[in-house]
Specification:
With about 450 residues, the chain is α/β, with parallel strands linked by helices. The protein has two domains: about 110 residues, Aspartate Aminotransferase, domain 1; about 260 residues, 3-Layer(aba) Sandwich (Aspartate Aminotransferase, domain 2), CATH 3.40.640.10. The chain contains 14 helices and 15 strands. The protein is globular. The two termini are about 40 Å apart.
Length: about 450
């Protein structure tokens, strides 16, 4: 509970600034019939009583802290060091908004520039913008950019890309001449290269894949890249950004763009938002990237200065020339990601990422040993994997929920063909005791 002081002197200062002697004087011109005649509120409480009352209300919420949760599927419960909220919560950052006049917003511009720099390094690409609303909008913007750049009207999107990303991309392209065709996955949960080869025609301007993909599989994109380059299409790769510190980044795979969700890098679950979408691209696409780019230069006195550059938004140029009309800058979220990455450093990121890999593999082995479950997709994973239950999944999930365990994400909603399959997520926060609780709950017949 924050404390915000308000003294009689504070009130008088505000009234004086407005030019009123009292509150009644302030509302003197409001007709009596329009004034509030009283609020139906309970009597006042002391601070101690109010805290207890609010705690009783908040206790009805169930969180990843009250449940033993193995949910992921795009929103991940990673540990956030205390230094992140301490710095990102400073008043000058919390109250700042997107800069429109660069010369008056040097601090905010520098924070965005630093965010761009670390995201470009993490994704392995030359340039990154100042962020998007979330991963889905960043992904959709990437697909649109590829089609505009190539002048083609078809995008091939892997079905192993996050379902919400695919849905938003389809919404972006609705009502246009562009269209999306999905690339199915193989029996091992990876991109179907045979299908990709057959569908790579001259009208395909974009191929989008996920690595790690939605099923948690880490794929080898070497052959896919060769096919895409042979068709002169652009290649977009999305994925869990923390994985880029231990597995090949999109840039290392040869991608033209990396677009996705940066929530795992220092942002809490927050009931699903606000999050922040990362968008990075090759140097060749720099002038077509949607959103804002902050550049570093020198002022007339030779001092370092930050400026907004390549402002391809409708506020700055003609609407028909804008690269995007609905993207924005999640300044505080982007700053939080920047603080997290700076605090962790490469060694810290790799250590956390390896904990995810090792713990996920360990839990997968334990579940695979249970007689009524199997792992349909083998191979390398980051921190997620798919499990198939040989018994009906819905009652099993409900039983575990009653025990305080969220076993994972039921895939049938997004993949009807995967009935009784669920996606299990393991982050560095999971202990052996918590993983044992899940396996014991799955194996229990009660």
């Amino acid at each position: 509970m924050n404390y915000s002081p308000l003294t009689d002197a504070d009130r008088q200062d505000m009234l004086s600034a407005i030019g009123a002697k009292s509150f009644d004087d302030l509302i003197a011109n409001v007709p009596a019939a329009l004034r509030e005649r009283g609020l139906n509120l309970p009597s006042g409480l002391s601070e101690f009583e109010l805290r207890g009352y609010l705690d009783s209300i908040l206790s009805s919420n169930k969180t990843s802290g009250t449940f033993n949760s193995f949910l992921g599927a795009g929103s991940y419960d990673h540990y956030i060091p205390a230094v992140v909220s301490q710095i990102a919560g400073r008043g000058e950052f919390v109250t700042a908004y997107t800069p429109y006049q660069a010369e008056a917003s040097q601090g905010t511009l520098q924070a965005i520039f630093e965010y761009q720099s670390v995201m470009a390094e993490l994704t392995g690409l030359e340039v990154a913008n100042g962020s998007h609303y979330d991963g889905a909008t960043a992904f959709a913007e990437g697909v649109l950019l590829a089609l505009r750049t190539t002048g083609r009207n078809k995008a091939l999107v892997a079905r192993t890309v996050h379902p919400e990303y695919r849905a938003v991309a389809a919404t972006y392209l609705a009502g246009t001449d562009h269209r999306i065709e999905e690339i199915p996955y193989t029996q091992n949960g990876c991109l179907d290269l045979k299908f990709l080869k057959e569908k790579l025609t001259p009208e395909v301007g974009c191929v989008a894949a996920s690595n790690p993909n939605f099923f948690g599989r880490v794929e080898d994109l070497t052959d896919a890249l060769a096919l895409i380059r042979g068709n002169q299409s652009l290649f977009l790769v999305t994925g869990h950004p923390l994985s880029f510190s231990v597995f090949r980044s999109p840039g290392e795979w040869g991608a033209d763009m990396a677009c996705g969700e940066a929530q795992p890098l220092g942002l809490g679950l927050n009931f699903g938002g606000p999050y922040v979408g990362y968008f990075a691209a090759s140097q060749a696409l720099m002038r077509k990237i949607p959103g804002r780019l902050v550049g570093l230069t020198t002022d007339r006195r030779g001092k370092r200065a930050f400026v907004l550059t390549l402002q391809a938004r409708e506020q700055h140029i003609r609407r028909e020339k804008a690269s995007s009309n609905i993207c924005s800058n999640q300044a505080l979220c982007a700053l939080t990601v920047c603080v997290y990455l700076a605090a962790m450093g490469w060694d810290g990121l790799r250590e956390v990422a390896m904990l995810n890999v090792e713990k996920a593999r360990a839990l997968r082995e334990r579940i695979a040993a249970l007689p009524e479950f199997e792992i349909p997709f083998g191979g390398d994973i980051f921190n997620e994997f798919v499990v198939r239950s040989r018994k009906p999944l819905k009652p099993l999930m409900e039983k575990l929920r009653e025990k305080g365990i969220l076993a994972g994400y039921a895939l049938e909603k997004s993949y009807p063909e995967l009935k009784d399959h669920f996606l299990v997520t393991v982050t560095e926060k999971k202990t052996d005791a918590q993983m044992n609780e899940l396996t014991e709950g799955l194996g229990s017949r009660r």
